Amino acid sequence: MQTANITISHNAADGSTTIAAAGVGTPAVSGGATITIGDTQAQVGDVVAIPVTVTDVSDLDVTGVRVSIAYDPALLTPKNDGAGTPTTAATAGEVVPPEWAVEQNVPAPGTLSVSLAGALDKPAAGAGTLLTLRFDVSPTAALGAPSPVTFAELEMDEGDVAVTGVDGAFHVFAPMYGDVTGNGDVTPYDASWVLGHVVDSLQDPPVELAFPIEETAPVWAHYPLTQENAHEVANADGDVILDGQPNAGGPDITALDASLILQRDVEIIPVFPVETPPAAPVSAPVASGYGLRGVSASARPGGGVVVLLDMSGMASLRAGELALDYDPALLRPTAASLRHDADAGRPLLAQREGDGRLVVAFAAARPIGASEALLEVTFEVTPRVSRPTASTIRASHLRLNRSRIETDFAFPFRVEPFANRLMANYPNPFNPETWIPFELAADADVTVRVYGLAGDLVRTLELGRHATGEYRGRHQAAHWDGKNERGEQVASGVYLYELSAGSYRALRRMVVLK
Asked: What does the pLDDT look like over 206-228, one tens digit per residue?
């Protein structure tokens, strides 16, 4: 068996490592690939996932890869199964087929050896993640200069494939809680972002609003944050949630976090609860301090339906969230407002409309006020409803302060479409004037004619073009001043009035009584 000499060359300028094979009987090196250790960051005591990526190897028939990684053992500890066997290296399935074997070992502190091998008919293919390395970050790690993570050895198919390695670096960062914009300060703008995240995440399906620190490195970190780290920064009270159960899992970002940011900004609180574990409850749940009800202002197309969340029974209300589900073909949200105690200041309010779901969230630095805490959400009924329709508005989510409240609130209502209709005049009998209400099922030119009992035309009222809808009030209905075409007051007696609207005709009686 012929042997080859392995040469490793480091380039200080660009951080690359070149692995070359040479010697008697060494096969000719074909093609080439570049493997890169990603630059990463994590918090003290956290777990960091370091990606190892490779350029396209589809045409290189690679079935064996040997990697040796050097790292600072005082800073990073490879993950293991609890019995000392390393489990830090895992393939992502992007390049290495799932059938490949992965073996790993820590021969000495600061060195991780990984071997990957596959069947000759199942070579690596494509470009992307070759490995993901998972390390525990020391709980005593200090902020400072980057720690290098480098290749000590790198080989593909025993040197048949030339490989260039690009070293990486690991940084320890300290999060600045509440600063989701990453400018190094906690401001009301951060509260706006958090509240926006809340209303988006409660949509169905949830909409993921990326915080600025996920796209641009904050001033207190080296790189943009992962979504997980960014959510930790936004989670000012430290609450966690998993499968709908509070206090068991990942960060639970709520309107109360926006309230805490506002409180911190005006120095009502000196630090966030998450910064002083264990965090004491900011406000105790008060499940009996609220009420939900619905009001239908009009059961006709174009009318309004209002949902009211009355929170006046809560003495320390600072934040809340409400999600309402409705039929978007029948209703359109028009307004959401929060009545409040003027002395306490106007709360921050955000709303987001999805496909059949409206989410409203609010936050304030101080208690909103026990007597004025009323959230009013208004919907408009679609103007074009052609047949009687029943529907329901339901509350799918309700949270007040920190308390998630289970609710079965449902407000049923019925919409009756407009019809062509001539209604009774008022007053009747009358002297000297009266109003004639009517209703239209479609846009039309409207005319009202007044006749005597003998059929003689007394007065014509040309009302012009009117849209679909009801015309009942004195500023909407047809008005007759009791005079004929010559401007003379008509005599007492019974008269007929006729409505003409398109092809629709209707006739009713009225009485002039002097």
From this structure: 998 899 999 999 999 999 999 99
Q: Which residues contact 267 (CB under 8 A, 6 or more apart)?
A: none
Q: Which two tokens stand for residue 451?
A: 């006749």
CB 341 within 8 A of CB 369: yes
Instruction: Please report how many Cα atoms fall inside a 13 Å half-sphere around the Cα of residue 169, on the Cβ side.
Output: 12
Query: Could you tell me where the beta strands, DSSP code E, fall in 364-503?
Result: 374-381, 389-400, 403-404, 410-415, 421-422, 434-436, 438-440, 444-452, 457-466, 469-471, 478-480, 493-501
> Is position 398 within any domain?
yes
Helix axes 227-234, 188-201, angle to 10 degrees: 120
d(CA 500, CA 489): 24
Residue type, 280: A
* Beta-bridge mates of residue 229: none
Same domain flag for 166 and 67: yes
Angle 57-61-66 from CA coordinates, rounded to 5°: 75
Neighbours of 275 (CB within 10 A): 14
- Helix, strand, coil percentages, rounded to 5, for the chain: 10, 45, 45
Q: Which domain holds residue 493?
A: 421-512
Q: Is 123 helix (H, G, I), strand (E, B) or coil?
A: coil
The helix or strand, by DSSP H or E, that contains position 228, with its residue range, turns out to be helix 227-234
Q: Is 432 left (phi over 0), alpha (psi -120 to 50) or beta?
A: alpha
Number of domains within the chain: 4
**299 and 155, same structural domain?**
no
Q: How far apart are CA 105 and CA 100, in angstroms?
A: 17
pLDDT of 157-194, one tens digit each? 999 999 999 999 999 999 999 999 999 999 999 999 99
- Stated length of the chain: 514
Instruction: Return the residue matching tokens 């799918």.
Output: 396
Whether residues 13 and 154 fall in one domain: yes
Name the pTM for this structure.
Answer: 0.76
* Of the residues 109, 141, 172, the one at which a domain ends: 172
Tell whether 45 and 115 lie within a shared domain: yes
Domain termination site, one of 372, 390, 415: 415
Rounded distance between C-alpha atoms, residue 251 and residue 249, angstroms: 7
